[in-house]
Amino acid sequence: MNYHAMMKEYKAVDVHSKLEEAKPHEFIKIILNELLSNMKTLSFSIKKGPNVSDIKSKAFSQSLSSIIVLQSSLDFERGQPIAGNLNDLYSYCRREIIKGFKELKSDGIDSAILVITDIFEAWVEIGKKN
To answer: How many domains does the chain contain in total?
Structure first.
């Protein structure tokens, strides 16, 4: 097994073990962090990579999966209006990711990265207070 394949496998196992052991707040933080990482990879691969690449496709699908997890974790009964606002932001990011992937343009993805960065930073601050 070459070095890159080994590191990829290690990272996958590391993320899975962190998720299994995480408390709910930490779980969301991990998902947000993975989403940011995948969105940045997607944006970079659109800007610099070939039109078709496994890295771009994987970053695209993992970004969408993370958004689905985040949206499904929202508590609309007890968390309004914040849950509704977050759902709208996640939907915006999902649309921009899909559009950028289809059109091979990173502008919308880069805007969505800023949105998720703000959410991630706020989530980290909330964790410090609890």
So the answer is: 1
One-letter amino acid of 52: V
CATH number, residue 107: 1.20.120.340
Q: Under a CB-based contact definition with an 8 Å cutoff, are residues 84 and 76 in contact?
A: yes
pTM of structure: 0.82
d(CA 66, CA 51): 23
Domain coverage including residue 108: 24-129
Percent above pLDDT 90 for the chain: 72
Residue (of 54, 60, 45) closest to 97 by Cα position: 60
Q: Cβ(60)–Cβ(101) under 8 Å?
A: yes
> What pLDDT, in 10s, does the model give residues 7-27?
455 455 455 555 555 688 899
